[in-house]
Design goal:
Number of strands: 7
Helix content: 40-55%
CATH class of the largest domain: Alpha Beta
Distance between the termini: 33 Å
Oligomer: single chain
Low-confidence stretches: none
Number of helices: 9
Strand order of the largest sheet: 3-2-1-4-5-6-7
Order of helices and strands: EHEHEHEHEHHEHEHH
Bound molecules: nicotinamide-adenine-dinucleotide
Shape: globular
CATH topology of the largest domain: Rossmann fold
CATH superfamily of the largest domain: NAD(P)-binding Rossmann-like Domain
């Protein structure tokens, strides 16, 4: 049983739909009989994803690519207006586009700023552009924001990506509460947390999931009414994720050094930790 927002003829907007998890979502939704707006930066990959989705769809006219930079609030508003004109609004919004630029603590400041614009502000612009219409329609609707385990356990290496995903988690939690407590019960928010997934143009490696597996897990999580949809992968089990998340929270409650999991003086305690 799917959530009611995923019925035939419903409308899904997927950002970051040219590649990876967003592309897999768009193709799956097309196969399920949804109308799909594929949103991404203009590229041959976006065109190719649109063509593939048209092949999967019973009606190719139900698939539209909309080249949009999600970090541009005016462009996101214009895209939402086009979705309204074309399909009468959206039932599903997957705020999934993300950048991984600016790796390292001293990376170019403009790269950091741009990453936050895409990964955090893109999610906020998308939500603000579509939520009022979803509320007004009053029919079942979902907003799924893609976070990351890096936004929960904060591993060293890519601090700005981690902070953007921690902010997406915080924003989506607040959004879920707001929807619940303001009587907008037809709309629910969900935080999708993929595990290690082969995306972009990367070669598939043992241990990683494929994007289709993430989308299947997401659909099951939404149908089950889950807010946190934390995917395992073939290397990290759900139990190991739970251990890592609880250990990270324990850094605060036990007054340990920040990111103690990676502190050689504390590592032995983490290795012996059983929640
Ligand atoms: N792949 C993983 O292992 C993994 C793990 C955890 C979280 N995630 C998250 O999953 C989501 C999907 O990532 P993916 O791995 O499929 O990546 P991907 O690189 O395959 O796809 C990301 C897409 O976002 C698009 N994009 C980037 N900037 C954009 C912008 N300004 N406007 C519009 N589109 C833009 C890219 O063009 C690309 O098509 C992201 O939010 C990512 O942070 C991925």
């Amino acid at each position: 049983m799917q959530h009611l927002a995923f019925g035939k003829g419903k409308v899904a907007v997927v950002t970051g739909a040219a590649l990876g998890i967003g592309r897999a979502a768009a193709l799956r939704f097309a196969e399920m009989g949804l109308k799909v707006c594929l949103v991404d930066l203009p590229s041959a990959d976006l065109k190719a994803a649109e063509e593939e989705a048209k092949v999967k769809a019973a009606d190719p006219g139900s698939i539209v690519a909309m080249a949009t930079d999600v970090s541009d609030p005016g462009a996101v508003k214009a895209m939402a207006a086009t979705v309204m004109e074309t399909f009468g609004g959206a039932d599903i919004l997957l705020n999934n586009a993300a950048s991984r630029a600016g790796r390292g603590f001293d990376a170019d400041i403009e790269e950091w700023r741009q990453l936050v614009e895409v990964n955090l502000w893109g999610v906020i612009y998308g939500t603000r552009a579509f939520l009022p219409g979803m509320r007004e329609r009053g029919t079942p609707a979902v907003i799924v924001n893609t976070g990351s385990k890096q936004g929960i356990t904060n591993p060293p290496g890519h601090p700005v990506y981690n902070l953007s995903k921690a902010a997406v988690k915080s924003y989506t939690e607040s959004l879920a509460h707001e929807l619940r407590s303001s009587g907008a019960e037809n709309v629910t928010a969900h935080l999708l947390v993929p595990g290690w997934t082969t995306t972009g143009k990367n070669e598939h490696r043992t241990g990683a999931w494929l994007p289709d597996q993430v989308i299947e897990y997401m659909l099951q999580g939404i149908a089950a009414g889950s807010f946190y949809i934390v995917c395992p992968d073939d290397e990290v089990s759900a139990e190991e994720d739970r251990r890592r998340i609880l250990w990270g929270a324990g850094d605060i409650t036990e007054n340990r050094p920040a990111l103690s999991r990676w502190d050689p003086t504390v590592k032995h305690a983490y290795d012996a930790f059983e929640p």
